[in-house]
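Work Package 3 (structural annotation) set out to generate three-dimensional models for the target panel prioritized at the project kickoff. During this period the team completed the workflow that converts sequence records into discrete structure tokens, so that structures can be stored uniformly alongside our sequence database. As a representative example, we reproduce one entry of 318 residues exactly as it appears in the project archive.
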Amino acid sequence: MSILVTGAAGFIGFHLSKKLLDNGKSVVGYDSVNDYYDPSLKEARLKILEKSERFTLYRNDLCDFKALEAVFETHNIQKVCNLAAQAGVRYSLINPFAYQKSNLEGFLNIIELSKRAQVSNFVYASSSSVYGNNKKLPFSVDDNVDHPISLYAASKKSNELIAHTYSHLFNMPTTGLRFFTVYGPYGRPDMALYIFTKKILAGEAIDVYNNGKMRRDFTYVDDIVDGIIAALNIPSDYEVFNLGNHRSEDLMDFIRLIEKRLGRQAKINLMPIQPGDVPETFADIDHSRKILGFNPTTGIELGIERFIDWYKDYYHIN
């Protein structure tokens, strides 16, 4: 029996697939390997996964229903972890239809086929962005999330609603995971840590939004993967969990830790807050601790060190 991981060439999907393979599981990866960011990074991740004989990759789009259906027909899929999605809050302002395709049509395809296959568990990626401009901190899964402020957030909220409907109508186990600012080695080039590291090393200025008055619950990827695996192992009729570090870090402190590890000072452009962005995120993980045993252990200083060490090695920087 196999675990289907969509978005297996992506940042979190790669780390999850590798951990599952290391744990002796068989993984079927599904990924379009698109060019939203440098495909060579995705190929490098896949090269590592393909070293295992228990990893099988399908290079297709979630919106290709027939191609996805064939995967279920070929493999005895026991569990599904849907991480494939069009990511990014800011990109949703300029290319909304990418989100309609991947995050709505693609999501409906994978959950419908999972229902037909009677999988024992369906776990999917949601996002902390569903909380919008929630003023109550930390963000709790009991909070109202009916007011997203970006199309990306709206698409993730829609995933939660669709999953709820499938659980209600078909007695299907579904679990949504609201990720909080995930970072680490092999991270996405459109995320702050990657951008800041690259520009500081190049001597270029970094744009810091809301005039630096930003706070984020930065969560190291290994901790996120532990949470996902716990969710895969504990089927629920319908659940949503926060996966965050349960700490809200000042963005300027985050930058100072990058400077410290690089041994270089950043040139900073202070900018106004971007449309769709929020000034602070902070995860209440009490529910995740209670049900999943989720317990993040990696602080941002260690996490930043690991990312920068990987970055220098990957790009051959002395």
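The chain has a mean pLDDT of 96.
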